[in-house]
Write a structure and sequence with these properties.
With about 200 residues, this protein is of the alpha+beta class. It has 5 helices and 9 strands.
């Protein structure tokens, strides 16, 4: 039996309900778990972030001679910022007083009251980021994607423009089965895009 990812964006029960499978029917549980994992990984890869609340220890960031550090994850709930002390040991870090920076929680940005020294690996950040509870719209989007993967588990319908089922002919609107195309067909693209990490243009 496959194991559900600890950071899965939806639940087996929600996907089974969407598929019209009774909770007592466990015959497809293994497939459903695998496809929830696949959908979770696909959404996180597209968005460039981990959604479930997680603590990140001493992530290394370069100094860029501006007064901001853009974290890899968000929203942020706790931060400890350290600067590399190269005078003693290249692997030593000194904690920077919290009064010397401000946290833009939703954006995952540290606004510094000093210019970040322009040096590779100049700073280490330990922080907690993500959602304690996955937002409902994101969970529903993942459930929809997982259902798509379950219904196309054998790959027989993927990339096919036309399919014949007995006397019935099915014309697919779009045979492009990239993640972006699937999300668009399922009507979840705007939800997923709203959570995606886009390039940030600093105002400093």
């Amino acid at each position: 039996m496959a194991a559900l990812l600890s950071y899965a964006l939806t639940s087996v029960s929600d996907v089974k309900e969407s598929l019209g499978i009774a909770s007592s029917d466990t015959s497809k549980d293994n497939l459903i778990i695998r496809k929830i994992n696949q959908a979770t990984r696909a959404i996180e890869a597209y968005c460039g972030r981990r959604f479930l609340q997680t603590t990140y220890t001493q992530e290394i960031y370069n100094g860029t001679n501006i007064d901001q550090i853009i974290l890899k994850q968000r929203p942020v709930s706790a931060v400890t910022l350290q600067a590399r002390d190269t005078t003693l040991n290249d692997n030593d870090f000194e904690t920077i007083e919290s009064t010397l920076y401000f946290v833009e929680s939703e954006a995952g940005i540290l606004d510094l009251v000093f210019g970040a020294v322009g040096r590779w690996g100049a700073y280490a950040v330990t922080y907690t980021a993500g959602y304690a509870t996955i937002p409902e719209d994101l969970a529903e989007a993942c459930a929809s994607l997982a259902c798509f993967y379950v219904n196309n588990a054998d790959g027989s319908d993927i990339g096919i423009a036309r399919k014949q089922e007995g006397s019935r002919s099915i014309q697919y609107a779009n045979s492009d089965q990239s993640f972006k195309s699937i999300a668009d067909q399922l009507g979840i693209n705007e939800i997923i895009d709203s959570y995606a990490n886009m390039p940030v243009q600093t105002d400093r």
